[in-house]
Design a protein that fits this description.
single chain; mainly alpha; 81% helix
């Protein structure tokens, strides 16, 4: 059974490259969210410590703190899940390798599109090959 996502080697290379970048980005985003929640929690606990009820409503502060801890818990759980994939991506250097493979596929396609068959013995066929090459290149330009 063939995967439904990639329709060509070029598409597969693009999708794999984008996927490993997405894994890294999601891991970094969740780690950043955890840090932001930790900073906000420090602010909220200092507000409890240093501000009186005449400056800020303690009930509202408690609700904000509770929401902060829930957001942090969610980010931490997501980060733990992404970490399993992220460690493989980093350990194997997949971002670099898939980026390189993506460039290689593009280069191969470019080389293949410039290929031209030259007849060995039947010179009378060369003009047919030339016209077919021109027709295919025009079709590829309008179809892309």
């Amino acid at each position: 059974m063939e995967p439904a996502i990639a329709t060509s080697p070029k598409d597969a290379a693009n999708q794999l490259h984008e996927l490993v970048k997405y894994i890294k980005d999601q891991f970094d985003h969740t780690a950043s969210s955890i840090g932001a929640c930790d900073g906000e929690a420090a602010d909220l606990t200092h507000a409890f410590e240093l501000l009186g009820p005449e400056e800020i409503d303690p009930t509202e502060l408690l609700w904000q703190y509770q929401e902060n801890r829930r957001r942090r818990r969610h980010a931490k759980e997501e980060n733990e899940q992404w970490r399993a994939l992220y460690e493989v991506v980093v350990k194997l250097g997949l971002i670099h390798y898939f980026s390189q493979a993506k460039r290689e596929v593009r280069s191969i396609i470019k080389t293949q599109s410039a290929r031209h068959y030259t007849v060995k013995n039947r010179n009378d066929l060369q003009s047919y090959f030339d016209r077919a090459k021109l027709r295919n290149s025009l079709n590829n330009q309008t179809g892309s």
